[in-house]
């Protein structure tokens, strides 16, 4: 029903306010002024998303508040709940900073409650302007590299925890929220079987497959059971319960740790996992952040699953067995991780023992300080103590995976990449989830990443080439101009560049 007919049919009382989202404002004001004395015109704030393609899962959107959000704000003592609030992404987490303070106008009314004159008027205060850590070009390349496949790319700066790219496909066009959307439009996204609203990078939970062999080695080390030179003879497969998990990348062979990692030998890591107790596995998993949320500054993060004795008992009504240890050792069975957790794991290896809390807020623009960017400080998230020798062994094996193993398709001329592939069996399809996780440049890491493509085949042939594009884009851009692509939302003020100088390369 349009506004004019609604008024004619007596839909409104004197106190009603009628809003309209569209560009029909001119028409409404004509209606209000000339035809209907009881109709007034008011403006509502509206977010314009502009060209924010590739950023929908980061930015989120503003829309009418839910009852629980309204309740939350009232409990915080907010007197005026705005007509639109942050409902997802950065908009939700930093809503209070972004929304500013509403203005107000007090009128004297006549007998018929029509405004006569303004008594007092206070201008609204704009919200803060935020600078995000996302590198637009890297984000765009990651999205295009995933194409129409379902998957995720998470890239972090291992030195700070800043999220450089976090892409989930399929996505949706944020601009549908400009001017409001109908329930049918919302349902077309919300009920879509490909789940375009799902942030697969941090809320998708997947079996990690062979990428988890990094964790197995760390658990063995922590339990005092890591012997890289002990060789295991592999018939070309690992037996788990009554099934065989094939070693896809090598024939029957005898390998120590270095070659077992390079060729992703299941027997080697199965044997290693047999020496690690459920409690030892769990202790390392806790320390590395599996089965817990990282606390990233975006809503909806999932924590994955790390199966311990209790979990197995509840889930399968039987005690923890050697088969469970084998499954954990090669990242199958009940283990579920998010791509973000895997990116944090490799950023810890890159840093030789520490990883920082992931975040997308790079800083806040301080208007009072001449539009200078107040940078967010890195916060340590997990720490793993190991000898230099352990890190040297681990890192050289991950370099060899790229140079001579399963991830040769991630090689970049002039840049040494280190990483681990995975091809994870799953309940969705006969085709494995393709994984590649790692960091670069290996000698002084500036980017740590996890690439996951659902039911797409092998990590080495599907995920590693995507990582190659993402890493080369980011490192090439860094060499040209640091942070030229950083995303800014709020006011379009240029941050002071003095705090933001490129490191000398
Ligand atoms: Zn093998």
Label this structure with key terms.
single chain; 505 residues; alpha+beta; Beta-lactamase; 5-stranded antiparallel β-sheet; 4-stranded antiparallel β-sheet; 19 strands; elongated; disordered C terminus; binds zinc ion
Describe the SSE topology.
Blueprint: H1 3-8, H2 25-35, H3 56-59, E1 62-63, H4 67-75, E2 85-86, H5 89-93, H6 95-99, E3 104-109, E4 115-122, E5 129-135, H7 136-146, E6 151-156, E7 163-169, H8 183-190, H9 200-203, H10 213-222, E8 232-234, E9 237-240, E10 243-246, E11 253-255, H11 257-263, H12 266-274, H13 278-288, H14 309-316, H15 322-329, H16 339-350, E12 354-356, E13 361-366, E14 372-375, E15 380-383, H17 388-404, E16 418-424, E17 433-440, E18 447-453, H18 459-480, E19 486-489
Helix pairs in contact: 7-18, 10-13, 11-17, 12-15
The chain binds zinc ion (ZN).
Zinc ion is lined by residues 234, 247, 250, 265-267.
Identify the CATH architecture of the domain at 133-180 and 199-498.
3-Layer(aba) Sandwich
Rg is: 27 Å
What is the overall shape?
elongated
Helical proportion?
25-40%
Unreliable stretches: 14-34, 491-505
Any idea of the CATH topology of the domain at 133-180 and 199-498? Beta-lactamase
CATH superfamily of the domain at 133-180 and 199-498: DD-peptidase/beta-lactamase superfamily
Ligand inventory: zinc ion
Can you summarize the main beta sheet?
Answer: 5 strands, antiparallel
Assign the structural class, choosing from mainly alpha, mainly beta, alpha/beta, alpha+beta, or little secondary structure: alpha+beta
Distance between the termini: 63 Å
**What topology, given as strand order, has the largest sheet?**
7-6-18-17-16
Average pLDDT for all residues:
87
- Percentage beta strand: 15-25%
Q: Compute the number of helices.
A: 18
Number of strands: 19
CATH class of the domain at 133-180 and 199-498, anyone?
Answer: Alpha Beta
